[in-house]
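Module 6 notes. Inverse folding takes a fixed backbone as the condition and produces residue identities as the prediction. Think of it as a translation problem where the source language is geometry and the target language is the twenty amino acids. Below is one complete input and output pair. Work through it position by position during the lab.
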């Protein structure tokens, strides 16, 4: 799936709403940023309303590739949805689930590469931006989001769980 144009990060409006893909060249981790707070479902826990700026500083300092999808402004009900989850699991729940429930609950998408076109169809996407991802862009400033299976996602989650246990 191709997204374009992906613009260089300039003046990030922290009061806006963004769907952020961390390491979009792999199986991306997804977070939702809304009103300067971020929400994320990880293999360890559900993050509900933490300040985004310090987290963004860590991600950029560690040179993580990031794709930001700027979303149309709406009164998204975020906190209540993320409080329903403890963490992702290795059988059914991915980081997309609460984000999908917040942004477009009727979407049948199981993957971000299916969800982005659903968001575009209802005009929720304003722009795409990138940080530390210039090397991943095509000549026309587009980005190819790779496709993967549910099995790939759950194997990735399991590897994170094992890595966490070993450290």
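Target side of the pair, the amino acids:
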């Amino acid at each position: 799936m191709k997204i374009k144009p992906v613009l260089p990060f300039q003046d990030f409006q922290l009061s806006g709403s963004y769907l952020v893909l961390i390491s979009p060249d792999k199986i991306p981790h997804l977070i939702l940023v809304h009103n300067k707070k971020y929400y994320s479902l990880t293999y360890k826990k559900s993050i509900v309303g933490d300040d985004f700026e310090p987290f963004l500083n860590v991600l950029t300092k560690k040179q993580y590739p990031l794709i930001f999808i700027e979303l149309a402004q709406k009164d998204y009900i975020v906190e209540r949805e993320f409080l329903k989850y403890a963490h992702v699991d290795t059988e059914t729940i991915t980081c997309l689930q609460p984000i999908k429930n917040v942004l477009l609950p009727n979407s049948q998408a199981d993957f971000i590469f299916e969800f982005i076109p659903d968001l575009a169809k209802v005009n929720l996407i304003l722009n795409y931006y990138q940080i530390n991802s210039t090397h991943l862009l095509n000549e026309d400033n587009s980005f190819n989001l790779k496709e993967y299976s549910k099995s790939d996602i759950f194997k990735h989650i399991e590897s994170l769980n094992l890595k966490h246990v070993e450290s």
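Reference fact for the lab report: Residues 21 and 30 are 5 Å apart (CA to CA).
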